[in-house]
Structure formats: C-alpha cells, structure tokens
C-alpha cells in the first residue's frame, strides 16, 4: 500500500494540539488594519481552534501530523 501524500497547503496552516484538536491562525489580520478596532485585532491574535466537523476533513489531509 503506498504512502498517503500530505496536503502541503494544509500542513503550513494547521498544527495539531496534544489533545488531538487542530489549531490555526485567524484570517483578516495581515493588512488594512487601520479601520479595524483594537479589540478586534487583539482577538485575531488568539489561537483559532478548528471545529470537530472540519477536523475530520483535516485528518484526511494531514495523515502524519
């Protein structure tokens, strides 16, 4: 049986936590930041935990993570 290829774009965006969940960064924090409130930008710094429904898809894309 051949090895499964890792989805490289997903591997660069997601990391697995010790409990098996996936974490990622938030979108909308790289440019056009002047019109966003300080509270909103501070919230975007926090870790984004991926929902269980999407984790199943990530398990297929990242078999060796």
Automatic annotation (TrEMBL):
Region (Disordered) location: 1-29
UniProt keyword Heme, yes or no: no
InterPro entries: Ribosomal_bL35, Ribosomal_bL35-like, Ribosomal_bL35_CS, Ribosomal_bL35_sf
One cellular-component annotation, GO: ribosome
Pfam families, alphabetized: Ribosomal_L35p
Keywords associated with the record: Ribonucleoprotein, Ribosomal protein
Lineage top rank: taxon: Bacteria
TM annotation in the entry: none
First and last residue of the signal peptide: none
Classification via PANTHER family: 54S RIBOSOMAL PROTEIN BL35M (PTHR33343), LARGE RIBOSOMAL SUBUNIT PROTEIN BL35M (PTHR33343:SF1)
Family: Belongs to the bacterial ribosomal protein bL35 family.
Name of this protein: Large ribosomal subunit protein bL35
Organism: Pseudoxanthomonas sacheonensis
Taxonomic lineage of the native organism: Bacteria, Pseudomonadati, Pseudomonadota, Gammaproteobacteria, Lysobacterales
């Amino acid at each position: 049986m051949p090895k499964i290829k890792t989805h490289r774009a997903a591997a660069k965006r997601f990391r697995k936590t010790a409990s098996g969940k996936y974490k990622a960064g938030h979108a909308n924090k790289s440019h056009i930041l002047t019109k966003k409130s300080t509270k909103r930008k501070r919230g975007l710094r926090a870790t984004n935990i991926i929902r269980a429904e999407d984790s199943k898809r990530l398990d297929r894309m990242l078999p060796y993570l």
